[in-house]
Each structure stands twice: as C-alpha cells, then as structure tokens.
C-alpha cells in the first residue's frame, strides 16, 4: 500500500528541507558496484521505536554492530509520508542510503524498479535463502517485472515481516455498553447501532491519510473474490468501478458517515490522530493494520482485543514493507548482511513477541498470548488466500486520489457514483495500456 501507513513519524520541517535540498543538489546515481569504504552502513526506516518492527530492528542494528566491529551504522528515522513523497529524488541521488524500508506495490517499489532505481536482489535471495520462509502471497510484493508489476520477475525487495488489517476493539467500552464482540456482519452493524444510540461514535477514522479509503476497500472486498482482486491489483482483467463490490463499498461507507458510525469531523484527521484517539479510549473500534499492534500493547491502558472483519473472506494484507537497496548505494555488501540479520530466528522472535507478524520465527518462542493470536489469524488468512493487498497500489499517485476523493465522501461533497467515476479515471490514466 502505500500502505500507507500511520507509521509516519513526524520530522521537523528543517530536516525535511535539508533532505530535499541535499537530494536535489545531487544528480545521477552512484556506482552500481556498491564498493564503498566498507566502514559505514547508512540505514533508513520509518517504524516507531516502541512498535514491533522498530524494536526488532533496533536489536538487529546492535547485532550488526557486534558482528561488524569498526563499522559505523548511520541510522535515520524517517516518516512514511516523507519517504513516499521524496523517494524517487533520494533514490536517484548519490546521497541514497545503503538500505531502507520502502513501501511495496506497483505504485512504489514497482515504479522504482521500473525506473532502474533499485538493485536486483535475486542473486542474494538465492544465495542466502531469503525466499524460503516466504509464502507465495508474501513473495508477490517482493518481485517485479520489467513494467514494474508485482508478482513475477526479479527480486527488488525483501520483507522480514507480514501484515494484515483487523478490527481493534476496546474491551472496556464493549463491557460498559454491553456490546457483544461480533462474529457476523449483522452482529457488527448491531454493535455499531448500539454505540451510536448511546452517543458514542463507534469507529475511529482518518480522512487525510489511509484509514478512510481502507474502510471503503474492505467493504468492497466483502463482496469480491480473488479474480476481482487480481483484475484490480495485477491487471489480470479490467476492473469495473461500478460493479456490485465497488458500489457497495462506496455507498455503505457514505451511509455509515450519515448514520454517525464515522465522524464527519474525521475528514481532516491523520492516521496518527485516529490511532491515538483509539488508544485514549475515545472510540470503541478502529479498523487498521497489524503495524499498530505493538504500539497498542505498549501504550494502551484499557483492555483491548481484535477480530477479523466479519463476513469477509478477504482483507487488506500482504508481506510487509520491503528492505530495498538503492541502485547507487555505496555499501551494498553491508546492506545485504544487515537484511540477513533481520531474517534470523532471534530477530524474528523479538518481532513476534513485540506484536509483529514474523515470517521466520520459532513458533515455540512466541510466548505472548495476544501475539500468538495475531500470528494465528495471519496464518489463517494466508492459508485461505485471504490477503487482498491495498487499494492504493495499482498505479502511481493513486494514494492521493483515494485520500482526496474519500474525504469528499465524508464531507458529503460528492456522491458514491461520482466518487467511483473519479477513481476509475485516475486508475485508467495510470494503469498499463494493453
């Protein structure tokens, strides 16, 4: 997606400006050999320090330092939106990091691969066996063909975790208002009605970033199948934005706003706002991804739990964001060795116990009950071919279209039919021409 993700950490305007100026001042990629001084690893990622990935990768950095005495790790925490907006400029400069976390999908990693900005990792994947623990569904977002379409071709990224969406719920609020944890969609809407009738907005939302359009996509997925997903995400057919699934998603979302399930005031909120509001106990539920799991574990005082979206075989999910090595990275060998450490059992077990979804953990080493449930639900989705990727992936720039158009649905400044027309127009203008 642009998974998009809440994982964006705020950076100061000065730092962002410096990054932009520095990237703009440099022209052309560095040498493809990656033969730097072998003494410095430049690493970027955008995970929260108290999140599962942030905690696991912090340990990976420490292990890298121990196994590489004399090597300096220059780590910079970036913001998701920052990487998203400046990636092509940074990747196409001599100031690119040696390894960075980058969003997967056609519109991001696929586009960068097509533009020749990423290193082909296929030889290292084969040599180090990074593909061995990855299921077919997780591998999909690691490989891209010459047109930048995911699912086949060379390896341009490696995920060391997976992710999926679910409904997080506040157990204390469910108990207070005597609401049953739903197992069917009818029970879900009953829960929404109950909270609303008590003057409580049931669903946390953020219209200025990814959460809002993920609600729409999930509603559509509940009426879709695998061929629908493949047509939309992998161009295996032409998607119909006015079919039953898309129409249901747009109309139901708009109706939920009108009913008060989702606040109109959320149109300008960001993912961080939605997440922290859920943490504070303002909302009983928040539909979002496993990337929040570790943070909720460390910050939330109320009791909470999760359930998969009722009545849907498909949900948003995939392999996690990718470790990629820029074409012009100066110390590629060090980058490969760091990626390798993140795939080891020790780091994978840390990731799992902190609330992540590891791809190569020792199941017996995952001792936290909530984490076990998280991983079990993912395993079920993966086994049942239930991962349906993210709505912003198919074409470059589609994330911005989804955000702006879904904001209009929230504020009632467009209707579902016009909303779907806008999505179709943006999709068709960016999709490969056949």
TrEMBL record:
Coiled-coil-forming residues are: none
Stored InterPro entries: Bact_solute-bd_prot1 (IPR050490), SBP (IPR006059)
Q: Which domain of life is it from?
A: Bacteria
Signal peptide per UniProt? 1-23
Keyword S-adenosyl-L-methionine found: no
Q: Which SUPFAM superfamilies match?
A: Periplasmic binding protein-like II
Task: Tell me the keywords, alphabetical order.
Answer: Signal
Q: Name one Pfam family in it.
A: SBP_bac_1
Q: Which PANTHER family match?
A: ARABINOSE-BINDING PROTEIN-RELATED (PTHR43649)
Q: What is this protein called?
A: Extracellular solute-binding protein
| Taxonomic path | Bacteria, Bacillati, Actinomycetota, Actinomycetes, Kitasatosporales
């Amino acid at each position: 997606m642009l998974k998009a993700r809440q994982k964006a950490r705020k950076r100061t305007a000065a730092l962002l400006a410096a990054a932009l100026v520095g990237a703009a001042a440099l022209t052309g990629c560095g040498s493809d050999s990656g033969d730097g001084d072998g003494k410095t690893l430049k690493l970027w990622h955008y995970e929260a320090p108290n999140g599962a990935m942030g905690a696991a990768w912090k340990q990976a950095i420490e292990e890298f330092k121990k196994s590489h005495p004399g090597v300096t790790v220059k780590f910079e925490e970036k913001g998701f939106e920052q990487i998203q907006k400046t990636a092509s400029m940074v990747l196409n400069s001599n100031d690119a990091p040696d390894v960075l976390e980058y969003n997967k999908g056609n519109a991001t990693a696929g586009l960068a691969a097509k533009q020749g900005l990423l290193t082909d990792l296929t030889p290292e994947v084969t040599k180090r066996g990074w593909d061995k623990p990855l299921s077919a569904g997780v591998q999909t977002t690691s490989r891209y063909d010459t047109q930048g379409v995911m699912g086949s071709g060379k390896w341009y990224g490696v995920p060391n975790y997976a992710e999926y969406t679910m409904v997080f719920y506040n157990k204390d609020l469910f108990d207070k208002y005597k609401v049953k944890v739903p197992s069917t969609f009818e029970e879900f809407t009953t829960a929404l009605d109950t909270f609303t009738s008590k003057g409580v907005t049931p669903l946390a939302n953020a219209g200025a970033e990814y959460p809002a359009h993920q609600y729409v996509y999930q509603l559509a997925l509940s009426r879709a199948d695998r061929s629908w997903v493949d047509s939309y995400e992998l161009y295996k057919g032409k998607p119909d934005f006015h079919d039953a699934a898309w129409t249901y998603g747009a109309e139901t979302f708009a109706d939920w706003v009108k009913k008060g399930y989702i606040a109109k005031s959320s149109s300008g909120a960001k993912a961080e706002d939605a997440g922290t509001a859920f943490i504070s106990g303002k909302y009983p539920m928040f539909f979002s991804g496993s990337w929040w799991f570790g943070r909720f574990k460390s910050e939330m005082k109320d009791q909470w739990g999760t359930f998969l979206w009722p009545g849907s075989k498909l949900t948003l999910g995939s392999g996690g964001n990718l470790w990629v090595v820029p074409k012009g990275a100066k110390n590629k060998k060090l980058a490969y060795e760091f990626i390798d450490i993140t795939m080891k059992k020790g780091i994978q077990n840390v990731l799992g116990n902190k609330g992540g979804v590891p791809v190569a953990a020792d199941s017996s080493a995952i001792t936290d009950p909530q984490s076990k449930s998280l991983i079990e639900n993912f395993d079920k989705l993966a086994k049942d071919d239930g991962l349906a990727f993210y709505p912003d992936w198919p074409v470059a720039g589609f994330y911005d279209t989804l955000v702006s158009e879904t904001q209009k649905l929230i504020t009632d400044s467009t209707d579902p039919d016009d909303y779907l027309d806008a999505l179709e127009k943006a999709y068709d203008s960016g999709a490969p021409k056949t």
